[in-house]
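Exercise: predict the structure of this protein bound to adenosine-5'-diphosphate.
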Amino acid sequence: MSFGGAAPVALVKLELAGFRSYQSLAWPVPPGVTLLTGANGAGKTNLLEAVHYAALLRSFRTRNLQELRRWDSPGFSLVATLGGDGLTRQLRVTQQQERSLQVDGVPIIRASDFINHFLAVAFIPEDIGLVKGPASERRRFLDILGSQLDAGYLRALSEYNQVLRQRNALLRQYAQFGDRALEAFDQQLVAFGAAIIQRRLLLVEELRPELEESGRQFFGDGSLLARYTPVTGTESGLETLTARLFDLLVKNRDREKRDGVTLVGPHRDELLLTLDTRPLAAFGSEGQCRTTALALRLASYRLLQRQAGDQRGLILLVDDVLGELDAVRRRTFLDLIRQCPQALITVTTADECAPWADQVVTVHDGAVN
Ligand SMILES: Nc1ncnc2c1ncn2[C@@H]1O[C@H](COP(=O)(O)OP(=O)(O)O)[C@@H](O)[C@H]1O
Ligand SMILES: [Mg+2]
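Solution:
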C-alpha cells in the first residue's frame, strides 16, 4: 500500500450530520480496499456520495442539493479529514440556508478553492451515460478530470461559461442591443473558448495511453479510442484555434441571432468513443458500452494517480458496478482495484469479492461497523 516512508495521503475520517440517511456518523475510513456490505437501502451509496461531495462539491446522483439533507433535518454537515505524509487536513461543508466551506477551520469563499483537496473517482451504474448519453456527459467527464488535474482548467472553464452565459443573454435580446454589443463579447468568447479546446485536446492526448491500456484489459484485442472533435478541427496551436473559432462565429452569426444562442464552441463539442473505429454510441452493445464507461473511469483514475495521486490522496469509489460485469471482467477489475491505495466498494454480498479486500465493513441502521 505505501511505498516505504510516510503513508500516502488518504481519507482518514468521515463525519456526517443530517446527510441523507445519516443522522450522525463518525467513521474512521480505513486505508486500502474496503468492501461495504449491507442490505438494500442501508446507506452504502449515501456514504460514497458523501465522500464524492467532499472532494468535488458534487453528488454523482443529483444536482438538487435539497436531496442531500436528511428529511427531518434543516441542513447537513460533512467533515472529511485527510491524513498521511505528515499532513492532516480538515474539510468541512455546512449546508443550512447557505453553504459554508472551511479548510482547517478557515472559511473558504469560492468552491474552486475547496474542491479537489483530495481526488475522487466514482464508478457508478449511471456511467453508461458517458457512452450512450448526450455529448454533454462526455464534456463533463473531461472537464471534471481536467479540473482535478489542474486548477487552471477549472478557472478557464468558468471564465468561458460566464462569457457564454452573457453572450447568450444578449443574443436573446438581440433586437434591443444590436451587433456592437455582441461583438464586444466575441473576442473574449473566442479567447476563452480556444483555451478550453486546447486544454481538452491535450487532456485527451494524455488520457490516450491509459485508455488504450484499460481497453486492452477489458476488450482484449479490441482497440478503444477517445477522440475529441472540436468544431475548430484538432490542430492544437492556440492562435489557429482562436482564428478558426472566430471565423465560425462570424459564419454562424445570422443563425445565432435567429436562434438566440451561441452555436459553436467547446460547449457543443464531442468526445467520440470508438471500438475498432466504430462509434460506440451508435453501434456498441449494452455490454460494450458499460465496459467502455468502466474503462474511461479507470483511465481517468490512472491518469490522476500518475500525475497527482501521491500528493493529494486519491480515492476510488465503486458503487454497484461489479454485479454488472461478467466473471472475467469482474476479476480483471478486482485485480486492478486491489492495487489502489484507497477504495470503497459497495456490494450486496461480500463473499466473492472478499479475497480482494483489506477489510469488509457492514452498513446497518445508520452506522458502519
Ligand atoms: N435525504 C434523505 N433523507 C433521509 N433518508 C434518505 C435521504 N435520501 C435517501 N435516503 C434513504 O437512504 C436509503 C438509501 O440509501 P443508499 O445509500 O442508496 O442505500 P444502499 O445501501 O442500497 O446503497 C433509503 O432508505 C432512503 O430512504
Ligand atoms: Mg446503493
